[in-house]
Amino acid sequence: MASRRFLGALSRHFRSHKTLSLTLPPLLRPLPSLSTPPPLSAPLRGIQPLDSLRSLVTLRRFSSRPPAKSSDEEDEAEDDDDDDDDEEEEEEEEEEGGESWDGEEEDADASKGSKCIVQRGKSVEEKVKEAAEIGYRVVGSLDPSSENPFKPYEPVFAVVQIGSHQFKVSNGDSIFTEKLKFCEVNDKLVLTKVLMLGSRTQTIIGRPILPDAAVHAVVEEHALDAKVIIFKKKRRKNYRRTKGHRQELTKLRITNIEGIDKSETIAAAA
Q: Where is this region: Disordered (predicted)?
């Protein structure tokens, strides 16, 4: 395109120079000199420089080419790129932090939760309903000075369900379950979800629960299970996290099993 314009300007210059030479009188016309050729710069004086041609080319906008960005837009794009680079560097620094234990994170989460979340106190009816869904009922508190709920061993067993776990228990056994809410140490409980009862002479199977059966227990303590180490790693990401978890447990002591005839069992034992 530029070369075509250059040739057009050159042809116009020669045409104008030829017309001027024809209109001048013969006395004013320059004599032809055969010895000295005309300088090459003379016919190029009327030609526009290439910079002006480039400016004309840049002023035109074609639909196939995107418009040139201004200086402000370029500065904003550079700022966005710098922000993205800073965010990527911060993420890499956080990932390079290495190992972290759950103690500090749990404390931070607890402090945030205490500030942001306000738990509503539950009524007695709601507590009883949730306990029944888990599979127990709180009868009352045990008085060790006047009561002795523990009985000698009887050859009777029961299969009870507490939450999502099942246990085979007998009189005097102790079991660890997931922490039971709404009960304290030395509280007397009745385990209502009894799936099966058995003795030396008979076995009773529920479909799925025996409505007339019950297992009595006493809460001995609330404890924590052994720590389980949880290690997470992502390949080629420099990501390593080590956390520990201790499950809350409740220890129950079985005191009595009801819903099965024990007379035959006692006679057989005698």
A: 19-47, 59-117
How far apart CA 152 and CA 162 sit, in angstroms, is 24
pTM: 0.53
Q: How distant, in Å, are the alpha carbons of 160, 171, 174, 210 from that of 199?
A: 15, 12, 19, 15
Alpha-carbon gap, residue 265 to 131, rounded angstroms: 32
Domain range list for the chain: 124-224+250-258
Angle at 217 between CA 214 and CA 220, to 5 degrees: 165
Q: Residue 35 has which token pair?
A: 């010895």
Q: What angle do CA 50, 56, 58 make, to 5 degrees?
A: 100
Q: What pairing do the DSSP bridges indicate for beta strands 248-258 and 174-178?
A: antiparallel
How far apart are alpha carbons 105 and 102 in whole angstroms? 5
Neighbouring C-beta atoms of residue 262, cutoff 10 Å:
14
Question: Nearest-5° angle of CA 167, CA 173, CA 179?
Answer: 60
Between residues 182 and 21, the one the model is more confident about: 182
The answer to whether 135 touches 250, Cβ cutoff 8 Å, is: no
**Cα of 126 vs its chain's centroid, Å:** 32
> What is the end-to-end Cα distance of the chain in Å, rounded?
119
On whether the CB atoms of residues 13 and 41 are closer than 8 A, the answer is no
- Phi/psi for 260 (5° steps) reads -135, 145
Average pLDDT over every residue of 118-136: 86
Residue 106 has a pLDDT of: 53
